[in-house]
Amino acid sequence: MSDSNKKIIAVIGGFPCSPEEGRLAEIVGRELAKKGAILICGGEGGVMEAACKGAQSAGGITIGILPGDGRQTANPYVSVPIVTGLGAARNIVIIKSAQAVIAIGGGYGTLSEIGFALKVNVPIIGLNTWSLSRNNQTDNSIILTEDPAAAAELAIELAAG
Amino acid sequence: MSDSNKKIIAVIGGFPCSPEEGRLAEIVGRELAKKGAILICGGEGGVMEAACKGAQSAGGITIGILPGDGRQTANPYVSVPIVTGLGAARNIVIIKSAQAVIAIGGGYGTLSEIGFALKVNVPIIGLNTWSLSRNNQTDNSIILTEDPAAAAELAIELAAG
Amino acid sequence: MSDSNKKIIAVIGGFPCSPEEGRLAEIVGRELAKKGAILICGGEGGVMEAACKGAQSAGGITIGILPGDGRQTANPYVSVPIVTGLGAARNIVIIKSAQAVIAIGGGYGTLSEIGFALKVNVPIIGLNTWSLSRNNQTDNSIILTEDPAAAAELAIELAAG
Amino acid sequence: MSDSNKKIIAVIGGFPCSPEEGRLAEIVGRELAKKGAILICGGEGGVMEAACKGAQSAGGITIGILPGDGRQTANPYVSVPIVTGLGAARNIVIIKSAQAVIAIGGGYGTLSEIGFALKVNVPIIGLNTWSLSRNNQTDNSIILTEDPAAAAELAIELAAG
After folding, report:
1. pTM for this one?
2. Is the dihedral of CA A113, A118, A124, A130 positive or negative?
3. Portion 44-83 of D in contact with B at CB < 8 A
4. Which residue in A117, B55, B118, C101 is a FRET match for C51, CA 20 to 30 A apart?
5. By CA distance, what is B7's nearest residue in C?
């Protein structure tokens, strides 16, 4: 399979993250790489680093879309650092480049990315993350699961064309 | 009062919007301008246009941060069209430039902006908008109100330095 | 004349700048404001600050498109600080928003903005700035002048619709 | 050699391009890949496509930083399409991510990127491209060559850390 046929899957979440979130992210990264997907993320620490570590352990390509001006801020498991200097606007590049997104835990930055993924119709799978309601009606657009291997499998299956 | 001492307040929300959302946005825009604030928004239709219309009716300055490549997409009540060509990344410019944000109704794009405002600690006031919970715990960071004049007053009061 | 009919003219150039460049920029800013134009610039020091100072002395609106994350970096003559957090990508917002551009002196950043203005067909007027050739052929797309008042007048005249 | 130790080299230039520029770009891409570098470019046609074609023929990774909202605009030789939706601001991401830049031919957009590369001190090598002067003094910051294989070799040698 040439690289250009590989699915590109984003993993988003907190930096720093809890040990449990890190454990989930590492499994997700490893399972994505095993199934031949390219991992895209923000390239920094926390959930991003754990996911890259998992992906690299299975020989996967890991793309880090960095917010600042130097490649030095990439975690050591990023194989291709993309230096944007765009600050938080880099989050939009991550979501637009992904064919599916897996959100793990996360704070308001992750919430912002989830909202953007829903807006542009990229499938999004959540592990221990936000729930949403609007005018007192629950919104079920985030696909919730507690199993990281299932999340990886589902992301690849749903990956938009 | 010189322009440089004026507060800059963002109004965000759906495009298109419901008549009720439009009514709320127009009042918010008018009240902001009456109190000497500069309105910043995405410069397009729906909630954005209604807010600009209200602000212009009271003689206010209205800044439209446009996503596309031409000033022609600005609604007719934008006094200063800023043409970004950045697509959705322009939402981040709106939030970063605002000293407080008022969200009116809104879909996933508005949710994404709310998440970003919370991340960067810009005060956010909601009229008929999203509610949030995380891991089954309600998050009360959005200040909810049903009174558009009160929303405008509160935004100016809370406007960060 | 309502704000929405005002021409938006960019002034770009070095930060820091020479005293002579500052003198030219201040005259340009003042003449633009006298003729009712809105000044847009990067909002920082050097040529940008001198142009804003001149514009404000004649009662003009000055828009500063800031690269960083805080409004505190705006020079004191910016009436509307726009906070982008986009770093150098904010230069593109300045050029896209302008109906004509005046370049005064300037280094490689200014050269980059001149190239972009020429690419998107925004008229560009140069005072003491770059000259260009490609494959040994001179490129005369920058309108060169040494008179700052003439530059302001020409910019407003050429301002694209 | 793991991916994370590979040099990332940008190739920039016109779209469309002349047959001679395409020939040069294809050799540059092939030589970069042979020497183990990752190619980064705008991911579209012209010089970008020719460089990707050359790199892929030698088994290299090719990153395309796309301006629009869809991966469909990538040329067929891009192995990792990054979808930015940022328009021309994506050029800045290309330059910031590169450890050296090779410019081949090119119009005003390429001139803008050259200016930006010089501003941020990324080494830049030119084949049939712009020459610069400022206030009637020639600027020799672009390293000019007519040999595409030499350009590739020099880019890797100069690639900033």
Report:
1. 0.94
2. positive
3. 69
4. B55
5. C80
